[in-house]
Design goal:
The protein is of the alpha/beta class and 185 residues long. The chain has one domain: Rossmann fold. Helices cover 38% and strands 15% of the residues. The chain contains six helices and five strands. The chain has a five-stranded parallel beta sheet, sandwiched between helices. The longest helix has 20 residues. The chain is globular and about 50 Å long. The structure holds ligand FNR. The site of ligand FNR has 15 residues, from helix 1.
Length: 185
């Protein structure tokens, strides 16, 4: 039975670099693993009343069900104002409730951050780690993956160019698989 790794990209933009990286990573699953893109496009902003009043929007139920079937997570995040984009933070919040039924608990993860700038989404990467500590998500420490000048990495069809970044991503995915096997509950 394949282990399923959910890929969550922190952007909804049509031409999102994070989504293009996700697409490239999707093709890097080794034997025994299936990588699956999880859409965040329809998720409403979390309101605790949804769960308290038993009026959970269908898109949230669907997301929680999808995440329940995932064994591990790859976060591909851009940086918004030196932190995690609200889209991704909201997904963490939505999946963390109802209390005691978090979809994140114990699932090994890795974070690949990116930016057109030189700081490579470092702030987003580390703010995401802060939440993942609380959510009990064992998050790969090495190699760290910070992709800078991300706008230079793709061809006109949005495919990741051959070369050092693709190799770096493949090495990071390989390391993540080892991390996953060590840390999966
Ligand atoms: C940005 N951007 C940005 N970049 C960065 O390196 N550090 C930052 O703090 C921010 N802040 C920020 C805030 C907001 C609201 C926007 C819209 C953008 C630029 C960002 O990296 C760029 O738009 C990326 O292309 C966004 O990622 P996707 O959509 O390409 O995946």
């Amino acid at each position: 039975m394949n282990k399923v790794i959910g890929i969550l990209a922190g952007s909804l933009r049509k031409e999102s670099f994070s989504k293009k990286i996700s697409k490239a990573v999707l093709a890097m699953a080794p034997q025994g693993f299936k990588f699956r893109t999880i859409s965040l496009a329809d998720l409403p902003i979390y309101n605790q009343d949804f769960d308290d009043d038993n009026e959970v929007p269908p898109a949230i139920t669907l997301f929680r069900e999808e995440m329940a079937k995932v064994d591990g997570i790859l976060f591909i995040t851009p940086e918004y104002n030196r932190s995690v984009p609200a889209l991704l933070k909201n997904a963490l919040d939505v999946g963390s409730r109802p209390y005691g039924e978090s979809v994140w608990n114990s699932k090994p993860a890795a974070i690949f951050s990116n930016s057109p700038g030189n700081l490579s989404g470092f702030g987003a990467n580390h703010h995401l780690r802060q939440s993942l500590v609380f959510l009990n998500v064992p998050t790969m420490q090495q190699p760290e993956v910070y992709l800078h000048k991300v706008h230079e990495l793709f061809d006109e069809n949005g495919n990741l160019n051959e070369g050092s970044t693709k190799e770096l991503l493949q090495k990071a995915v390989d390391a993540y698989i080892i991390w996953f096997k060590r840390n999966a509950a």
